[in-house]
Amino acid sequence: MSDKLTFNKVLDEMHADQEPSEAIRFMERLRDIYAPTIEMTENQKNAFDKAKRVLNTRDLALNFGQEWTILDEVSGKVFGHGQGEATNEQIEAIMQAWLHPETIKVVDNDV
Question: In this structure, are 18 and 52 located in the same domain?
C-alpha cells in the first residue's frame, strides 16, 4: 500500500480528530477541484486498467495534431465513442484518472 498522501486520507484524519469545521469544508472543496472522483463501471475500469498496463504516459500524445490521438482512443475504449469523438470532459477524466487512479470510483454497471 502506498504512503501517498491524498485528499481523502487527509479528510479522514481531519474528520476523526474534530467536528466539521471551515478547514474541513475547505479541504473538501480543494478535493472536488483538484482530485474529483471519476466514476466508471467495472467494464470501463477494466478497459482503463488494460490501457494503463500496455501504454506509457508518453504514448497518450501519439498522433497529436491528427484527427485523433491515443488518448482519444483510450477514452473511446472506456466511454464507448469512436475515434475523434471524445468530448473535452471525457479527455479530462481519462487524464485525471491516468495521473491519479486513486480518484476512480467503480459504480454499478448500467443494466
Answer: no
